[in-house]
Amino acid sequence: MLPEFIPNWIDGREQEAADGGRFNKLRPTNGTILYSVARSRAADIHTAVAAARRAQPAWAATPAVQRGLLLHRLVVQLEQRRDEIAQIVAAETGKSLKEALAEVGGAAQCGLFYASEGQRLYGRTTTSGTPNKYAMTVRQPIGVAGLIIAANTPIANVAWKIFPALICGNTVVLKNAEDTPGTAWFVGQLARDCGLPSGVLNIVQGYGEEAGAPLVAHPDVGVISFTGSTEVGRQIHRVAGERFCRVSLELGGKNALVVCDDADLERAARWVLLSAFSNAGQRCASASRVIVFDAVYDHFRTMLLERIARLKVGPGDDDDFGPVINERQLQKMLTAIEAACAEGARLLYGGHRLDGPEHRGGFYLAPTLLEGVDPAAEISRCELFGPITILYRVPDFAAALALANDSPYGLTAAIHTRSLHRAVHFCEQVQAGVAVVNAGTYGSEPHMPFGGLRQSGNGTREPGTEALDVYSELKDIYINIDPTQL
Ligand code: NAD
Predict the structure, then answer these.
(1) Given this model, what pLDDT does residue 486 score?
(2) Does the C-beta of 116 come closer than 6 Å to ligand 1?
(3) Residue from 105, 86, 114, 391 nearest 268 by CA
(4) What rounded mean pLDDT belongs to the chain?
(5) 284 is catalytic
(6) CA of 151 to the centre of ligand 1 (A)
(7) Is 3.40.309.10 the CATH classification of the domain at 255-437?
(8) Ligand 1 pocket, 152 CB below 6 A?
């Protein structure tokens, strides 16, 4: 079913890169070639932006309700072809089919929410200070939206960006993640099948520097929305900011999960494992710092180690998590673990590549647990985006909260406690975009706003209705209803 070559999808047709360049996408499970992919550069971005620009006035003139109906057709396609999509997601990422299917479900929910927004797209009608005058706001499209995404949850990441951008009347150039080319390519096919006009959704494959950077710099792109690393986000902010382009940045995290002395430790251990290791830790919301009260620390560490030893790593539905996305990421993590241990961190579990017969050639890292790490050490402060977490011992609630907040990031946080007082205090005081009580560190539901503080983003929130603020311009309209009074 999978093609041998993944082309671009520009102006309603499949296209090679202009210079014919290609790169190979490898299977994370065994390192073999999955398919070759169009290696796009500035020329392809120019073609895609021009197509999006041509298509934009007619798309903007299509009533939002009609746009919503078209997008709803795309949602139905996502649901009807969920098995095919999940197979592509699983092949590209190495995650299990079960997880991939759940991801398609999340993407469809997100799409449904925004398709329905076509019947709302509320502005505000309010009173004027002048007699005989209406005052109101309306939402208008920005123009061409340049969307750049990460590979960790490919179909969800596509949905998160394209649905809100399109419902607002923008046309889209999506620079897809180079590690998951097939998922977005398939969405292009679905968009064609459900009658989305040519040029409304354009999908460009390729590397960040070669295809992403020209999209960010393109003067005809009115809004850039980026999901990826803080390092690249900083660069994008600088370049797009230079021309006052609207920018939404959804970046990294170093998320704290606090386990208090009054926590349900069984439940807390289960959530630590899920939060730290699911999707091989490749979640911006992953619990990479586990902060535990001294009174229960030794016992909780034993509980965690027993459970980690039972984790199964592989691509099957019975496995707990799969490989990381590529060899480079794996090597980066191995280097970081080695450096941390050289500085005195204690490796409690894992820390090595899995290369037994069932993992051979794949990009598998054993679930890794560290302790004895200084909160100021590099590994405490940088995101690794893999199945690695660190235990920290604290004396009390105040120290736990202070350590949770001692981070360059501020995306998500969780606390496990039976005390209402502690839970509420934590939710109020933790410096994060999402706070969770007695569960995992996770992202938002598709109809809720997600985003973080400090280096986790630039203050925007997607998805939810808040994403409409990213993808539309608000215009004030004043109507004088008695011109003789003017
Ligand atoms: P990355 O920043 O390396 O790449 C992300 C995307 O940006 C890719 O499509 C890449 O090709 C592109 N890119 C790279 N360099 C570019 C450049 N100079 N100009 C334009 N585009 C460029 O990130 P990654 O390692 O692929 O993804 C992991 C990161 O994504 C983690 O930091 C993770 O926390 C973050 N993430 C954040 C969220 C969120 O909602 N906050 C969600 C998922 C992932």
Answers:
(1) 57
(2) no
(3) 391
(4) 97
(5) yes
(6) 8
(7) yes
(8) yes
> Which backbone phi and psi does 223 adopt, to 5 degrees?
-145, 135
Quick: pLDDT tens for 327-379: 999 999 999 999 999 999 999 999 999 999 999 999 999 999 999 999 999 99
Options 110, 168, 260, 284, the catalytic residue: 284
Write out the CATH class of domain 5-251+457-475.
Answer: alpha beta
pLDDT for 183 beyond 70: yes
Predicted model pTM: 0.97
Catalytic member of 178, 210, 250, 462: 250
**In the chain, what are the domain boundaries?**
5-251+457-475, 255-437
Give the Cβ contact number of residue 332 at 10 Å: 15
Regarding the beta carbon of 213 and ligand 1, being less than 6 Å apart is answered: yes
The residue assigned the tokens 């890169």 is 17
Q: What's the pLDDT tens digit per position in 430-453?
A: 999 999 999 999 888 989 999 999
For residue 69, which amino acid is it?
A: L
Determine whether the shortest distance from the Cβ of 151 to ligand 1 is under 6 A. yes
Q: Is 284 in the pocket of ligand 1 (CB under 6 A)?
A: yes
Tokens 């073999």 -> residue:
32
User: 149: CA distance to ligand 1 center in Å?
Assistant: 6
Q: Whose CA is nearest to atom 40 of ligand 1?
A: 250
For the CA of 207, the nearest atom of ligand 1: 11
Residue 160's pLDDT is 97
Angle ∠(73,74,78) on CA atoms, nearest 5:
120
Residue 481: its pLDDT value, please? Answer: 87
> Quick check: helix, strand or coil at residue 42?
helix
